[in-house]
């Protein structure tokens, strides 16, 4: 038998084996079955109640409507197949095992009012976005064990969970509770006394709790201490803060051109019309949910403010009294308020983090007095809370002293979705102690014995074997600061009265060092005017110590670029290589 005959014989055998009754082949049966499956929904028996009259208007598809029997059968089978195969997919087995190991959230007892996380969050447990297995050993707060409040008084709530090494447990937001919500009302970061009596205030983090005794009186037992410092510019000269030559930062609608040549050492913005240049020194930036926990030091070289008094011109050095160094604004903005004798407080200025000032005027809205900006930025201030066009709200300190002008710093910044960052302060000058964001991450500011900022620490990159630090429980240093003393030779520099703090003995910022990249900046100052005239970008810097309580020294390394501004009395030589 030839090869061709053998192949034909095999084909006949195969055709015989796959033939079916009625002379229909397997392929034909398969095609018929597929056609029937496609047409079956058209002839399916409707489910019970499917023929009831619908009240849904014509043209609108009803939601969760009854499905035909075959459609429900197909959906159920598809869901069971999905459920069965999901656990066998790569990576899901490990995920399930890790999820079973997570601790069970502690339920909140009924009747207890909670401030902080919404009910859907894991109350008092590490945030899912920052898993942490470290144990909380104690909770640090700025409150006394026995609190004495007056009806209507509001206090700020701030707490930081610490481990056995006194390091913050990142990703863990403490929760505040009150025993009697009729006496003490809790909000996001505040507690307000409602009526006289005694109650308990408790803060909980993981399995650690700290309880405070609260006594509320109808009237103050002692006079409240002022919580904001007085400004050095007199009240009758405050309107000059908003003139074109004095307003710093980026005034709304300002179109003044910058310099033709970009600065080499740092990205800056020049305003030749008022002889001012500005730049932002990044300190840290943590992207997060909603409001980002980020802050920088914005420098404005216009450190002199010109106003008018009875004697004529009045020149004031560092009218902002910035706590880091003259010209450097390290804050999340602030609100300046006048306190006339026996009158309601009058907010008159709101300042952005970059130094931009917004003048405020009183406006009556539905019988209430609000204060709104006059520059078209549409910011409204009421009851120490500023509302921005995008829905973000900033709440400021609420205490002040009658007859004074006080500065109020933010206590909470909340976006329209409820995401919040909460700054806590070291003193009334606005020095930041730490900032906690929506994800429970803590950014801490460290000072020396002279209240000079030494370093800022942020959460470590990761915990576990893949950590980029030798000890993942320790925060990493983001930036360090070094200072110098400048004797300001201001006599006879201006035609008019001159106001200078500390008789012209100034503490200025000399170096900024980033340990992670060993880079930084050096600043040279004019002794005639007390402003930076040269910025040098440095590489390969080395710090003598990583202490968080002393500055130490830092080597300059190699300079990479420099930028000089030709103010009168400055030299013209580049820095030595």
Describe the structure in your own words.
The protein has 577 residues and is mainly beta. It is built from four helices and 37 strands. The strands form seven sheets. The protein has an 18-stranded antiparallel β-sheet, with no helix packed on it. Strand 27 (432-436) and strand 28 form a beta hairpin. The N and C termini lie far apart (97 Å).
Summarize the structure.
The chain is mostly beta strands and 577 residues long. It contains 4 helices and 37 strands. The longest helix has 18 residues.
Work out the helix count.
Answer: 4
Annotation, overall tally of beta strands: 37
Shape: globular
Q: Outline the biggest β-sheet.
A: 18 strands, antiparallel
Features:
577 residues, mainly beta, 18-stranded antiparallel sheet, 5-stranded mixed sheet, 10% helix, disordered C terminus
What topology emerges from the helices and strands here?
Layout: H1 3-18, H2 26-39, H3 69-86, H4 92-101, E1 113-115, E2 138-141, E3 146-150, E4 154-156, E5 159-162, E6 175-178, E7 184-186, E8 190-193, E9 197-205, E10 208-217, E11 268-271, E12 276-286, E13 293-300, E14 304-309, E15 312-317, E16 328-330, E17 334-338, E18 346-351, E19 357-365, E20 368-373, E21 380-382, E22 385-387, E23 393-396, E24 405-408, E25 410-414, E26 420-425, E27 432-436, E28 442-447, E29 453-458, E30 476-487, E31 497-499, E32 505-514, E33 519-525, E34 532-539, E35 542-543, E36 554-555, E37 558-564
Parallel strand pairs: 3-10, 15-31
Antiparallel strand pairs: 1-6, 2-5, 4-8, 6-9, 7-8, 9-10, 11-12, 12-13, 13-16, 14-15, 17-18, 17-24, 18-19, 19-20, 20-21, 21-22, 22-23, 23-25, 25-26, 26-27, 27-28, 28-29, 29-30, 30-32, 32-33, 33-34, 34-37, 35-36
């Amino acid at each position: 038998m030839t090869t061709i005959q053998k192949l034909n014989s095999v084909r006949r055998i195969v055709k015989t084996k796959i033939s079916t009754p009625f002379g229909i082949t397997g392929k034909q049966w398969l095609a018929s079955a597929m056609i029937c499956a496609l047409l079956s929904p058209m002839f399916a028996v409707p489910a019970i109640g499917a023929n009831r009259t619908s009240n849904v208007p014509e043209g609108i598809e009803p939601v969760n409507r009854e499905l035909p029997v075959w459609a429900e059968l197909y959906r159920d089978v598809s869901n069971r197949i999905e459920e069965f195969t999901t656990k066998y997919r790569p990576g899901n087995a490990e995920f399930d095992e890790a999820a079973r190991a997570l601790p069970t959230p502690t339920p909140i007892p009924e009747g207890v009012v909670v401030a902080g996380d919404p009910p859907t969050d894991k109350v008092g447990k590490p945030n899912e976005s920052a898993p942490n297995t470290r144990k909380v050993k104690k909770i640090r707060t700025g409150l006394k064990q026995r609190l004495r409040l007056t009806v209507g008084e509001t206090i700020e709530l701030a707490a930081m969970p610490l481990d056995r090494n006194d390091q913050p447990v990142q990703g863990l937001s403490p929760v505040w509770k009150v025993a009697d919500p009729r006496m003490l009302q809790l909000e996001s970061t505040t507690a307000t006394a409602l009526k006289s009596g005694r109650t308990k205030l408790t803060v909980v983090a993981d399995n650690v709790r700290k309880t405070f005794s609260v006594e509320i009186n109808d009237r103050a037992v002692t006079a409240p201490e002022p919580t904001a410092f007085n400004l050095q510019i007199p009240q009758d000269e405050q309107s000059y803060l908003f003139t074109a030559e004095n307003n710093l930062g980026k005034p709304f609608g300002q179109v003044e051109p910058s310099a033709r040549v970009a600065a080499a050492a740092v990205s800056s913005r020049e305003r030749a019309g008022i002889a001012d240049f500005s730049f932002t020194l990044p300190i840290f930036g943590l992207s997060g949910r909603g409001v980002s926990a980020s802050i920088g030091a914005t420098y404005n070289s216009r450190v002199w403010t010109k106003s008018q008094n009875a004697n004529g011109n009045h020149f004031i050095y560092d009218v902002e009294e910035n706590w880091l160094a003259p010209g450097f604004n390290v804050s999340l903005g602030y609100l300046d308020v006048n306190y006339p004798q026996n009158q309601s407080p009058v907010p008159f200025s709101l300042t952005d983090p970059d130094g931009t000032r917004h003048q405020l005027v009183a406006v009556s809205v539905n019988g209430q007095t609000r204060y709104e900006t006059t520059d078209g930025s549409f910011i409204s201030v009421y009851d120490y809370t500023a509302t921005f066009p995008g829905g973000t709200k900033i709440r400021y300190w609420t205490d002040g002293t009658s007859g004074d002008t006080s500065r109020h710093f933010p206590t909470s910044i909340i976006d329209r979705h409820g995401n919040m960052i909460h700054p806590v302060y070291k003193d009334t000058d606005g020095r930041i102690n730490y900032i906690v964001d929506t994800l429970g991450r803590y950014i801490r500011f460290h000072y020396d014995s002279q209240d000079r900022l030494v370093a800022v620490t942020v959460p470590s990159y990761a915990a576990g074997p893949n950590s980029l630090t030798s000890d993942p429980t320790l925060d990493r240093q983001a930036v360090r600061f070094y200072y110098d003393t400048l004797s300001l030779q201001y006599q006879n520099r201006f035609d008019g009265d001159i106001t200078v703090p500390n008789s012209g003995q100034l503490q200025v910022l000399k170096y900024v060092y980033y340990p992670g990249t060993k880079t930084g900046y050096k600043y040279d100052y004019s002794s005639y005017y007390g402003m930076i005239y040269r910025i040098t970008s440095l590489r390969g810097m080395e710090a003598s110590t990583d202490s968080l309580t002393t500055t130490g020294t830092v080597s300059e390394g190699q300079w990479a670029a420099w930028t000089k501004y030709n103010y009168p009395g400055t030299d013209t030589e580049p820095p030595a290589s």
